[in-house]
């Protein structure tokens, strides 16, 4: 029986993916929406945070540029999820990674750490702040494409 090579193994699609970050306000909701647009609908995708957060209007703006939307979705805590079992948990911040490792200590769940910058660290004009959020969106899209062999969605240009 042939053993799959590392490239094929890394591109295998899990049945369910959880993107986890600090407050489920920026990195993980962007990742969730991008993954929903890039992966087959047969893959269940969700996101959550490890502490309470508030919706960030810059996230809405950068998702709209990509033709995506959070709709009326609000940040969700990991502990408030009805079902916390996923095939893959992708952590996007150090505190989320530690929480995921603790949560999955006795579970057969793959946890991957994708360190991503926090765009709230950037100050300046609205355009400088938007550039940081766009950079984050593009980094996450590139990582999803590389990890899952997914096509990157076409983006609308900012107007």
Strand-helix topology:
Layout (H helix, E strand, L loop, with lengths): L5 H6 L4 E6 L5 H12 L5 E6 L7 H9 L22 E4 L2 H10 L6 E4 L12 H23 L11
Helix pairs in contact: 2-5, 3-5
If you had to describe this structure to a student in words, what would you say it looks like?
By secondary structure, the chain is α/β, with parallel strands linked by helices. It has a single domain, classed as Rossmann fold (3-Layer(aba) Sandwich). It is built from 5 helices and 4 strands. It has a 4-stranded parallel beta sheet with strand order 2-1-3-4, with helices on both faces. β1, α2 and β2 form a beta-alpha-beta unit. α2 crosses α5 and α3 crosses α5. The chain is globular. It starts with 5 loop residues before the first helix and ends in an 11-residue tail after the last helix. The N terminus and C terminus are likely disordered.
